[in-house]
Amino acid sequence: MVGVTDLVTFGETMLRLSPPRGERLETARSLDVQAGGAESNVAVGAARLGVDAVWLSKLPESPLGRRLVGELRSHGVRTGVAWADPESSRVGTYYLEHGGEPRGTSVIYDRADAAITTVEPDELPTGALESAARFHTTGITPALSDRAAEATTALLRAAGEAGATRSFDLNYRAKLWDPEAARAAYEELFAHVDTLFVPRRDAREVLDREGDAVEIAHGLASEFGFDTVVVTRGTEGAVALRNGSVYEQGVFDAETFDAIGTGDAFVAGYLAKRLNGGGVADALEWAAAAAALKRTVDGDLAVITPEDVADVVGGAAGIDR
């Protein structure tokens, strides 16, 4: 990997297996297969919005590992993979069963002993970091194993030394660890983070923050020295704090077909606009539009275009031109 890179992301990507809508996992005779992982979701969303994006990870050198790489590359993402022996490693999977009210959608993870849990930073092809404008990862990756946590810290450090702006999406997962363990790990990483994305709910329940979104953003920026804090508030939109200035953004209406990956699309839209020279207000608007568009698309990935986002922002969505 040579030349200038806009965005490098690092983390696990799994195979998402879903029965046809309306069927249960216990009776399904076929499963739809797709790629799904927070950091690769961001890379795909950003790449589709015109960003040169690279995703770093570790996978078994197997048909399943190559399947994931092929899908990400089909959306324009460059991949930097440490290939592992397929006899001693595996691809993580998760099963997603769509369901309406009152049953709801359910997720079952099967990611123990995935190749990413044995990752070492020096085995990753990190050349793209040397010229990257931004580096992004999430709070999911350090929860996977001690080695994954160490690699996360090492890559955040390396990105900072290379002059990249480093972003971190808290992305707390209760199925991976408890709030106390997560908070301790996150706060160790915060010294190496420039831009923090955090849901208001997780700021309160995991980081033990009080107050509204603006108060939370000010408190986190003051304590940890973040350049930018973006607090998402679900249906109430998002708030960003940068250099003392506060920016607010509402949500765009969307008919939800698949909500998985909405937060990753939000981050992708934000980073894409910032990388293309937009200010924080414009980036929040693109983030909200990308998130709304993602909700209309099946799968984890935001299969969208800059024109789609511009139409939503401009109020022209749904017009056949």
From TrEMBL:
Its EC number is 2.7.1.178. Transmembrane segments: none annotated. Keywords: Kinase, Transferase. CDD domains: KdgK. Residues 5-300 form the Carbohydrate kinase PfkB domain. GO terms for molecular function: kinase activity. It is an enzyme of class 2 (transferase). Pfam families: PfkB. PANTHER family: 2-DEHYDRO-3-DEOXYGLUCONOKINASE_2-DEHYDRO-3-DEOXYGALACTONOKINASE, SUGAR KINASE. NCBIfam families: KDG_KDGal_kin_Halo (NF041332). Belongs to the carbohydrate kinase PfkB family. This is Bifunctional 2-dehydro-3-deoxygluconokinase/2-dehydro-3-deoxygalactonokinase. It comes from Halorubrum yunnanense.
